[in-house]
Design goal:
CATH architecture of the largest domain: Alpha-Beta Complex
Largest sheet: 7 strands, mixed
Order of helices and strands: HHEEEEHEEEHHHEE
Family: Belongs to the Nudix hydrolase family.
Keywords: Hydrolase
Structural class: alpha+beta
Biased composition (Basic and acidic residues): 9-18
CATH class of the largest domain: Alpha Beta
Number of domains: 2
Radius of gyration: 24 Å
Distance between the termini: 73 Å
Protein name: 8-oxo-dGTP diphosphatase
Helix content: 25-40%
Region (Disordered): 1-32
Strand content: 25-35%
Amino acid sequence: MEEVTSKQQNREASKKPQTEAQAHGYDPNKYERPSVTVDVVMMSVRQKDLQVLLVKRRSWPYEGMWAIPGGFVNMDESLEDAAKRELQEETNVENVYLEQLYTFGDPGRDPRTRVITVVYFALLDSERLHVKAASDAADVRWFSVYNLPPLAFDHAKILDYALSRLRGKLEYTTIAFSLLPEQFTLRELQHVYEIILNKEMDKRNFRKKILATGILEDTGERKMEGTHRPARLYRFNPAAEHKL
C-alpha cells in the first residue's frame, strides 16, 4: 500500500510546474543570462606607499597576468559571501570588512562570456593579514597603486575608480583611521592622507582642520618621533564621527 501511495505522489508531483515562475507563465530562457563575478580591491599603506593586493592568474584568460582577487558567484550564495569566499580561496585572507564599491558591466570586458562584476573594497592594516597564494592563484603580492604591472580584464580601470573613490571618502568619512593603529600621532595621520592623495599637505592647516572636527581624543600619552620632543598620541572618537 505504501508503494502504491508513493507512486501516486510521484505522478502528482510530475504534473506540477517545476518552478513558481513557470506556474505564472514565465520562461527563464526568454532572455540571455550574463554571468556575475565579484572582485575585491584590498588596499593598505605599506612601506610608505599605498599598495593593493593582486593575484597572478593560474589559467586562461590572461594566464600569468596580475589581477584583482575575484571569481564567479554561485547560484546559492549572496554577492558578499561570494566575495569573501573568493578572497579566501585566492589569498587566504578571511574576516575582513568589505564595502560594495561599484558594478562594471561593459560588453566584451571578459573574453569568456558576457560578465558583470560587482566590486568590493577593503582598506586595512596589512600587518594584520597573513597573505599567501591559495588554491585558485599562482601567486599573490602587494603592488604600489602608482606603479602597477599590466593587469588582466578591465582591472586597471577598476583600480583607477577605487582610488578616486578612496580620495573622495577622505573628505567625509573616517576611512583613513582603518590604516592606523589604535593610538597614533597627528604626523602619522597626516602621512596617511598624503600617501592616499599622493601629495604633500601643509602641516598647520591639516592639524587645524582635523582637530576642529572633534573626531580625535587625546590619550594623554606621548611618543618619540625622531629627535623632536615627544608627540601627543590620539585615538579615533567614534562618538564624533558625524562631525566629518
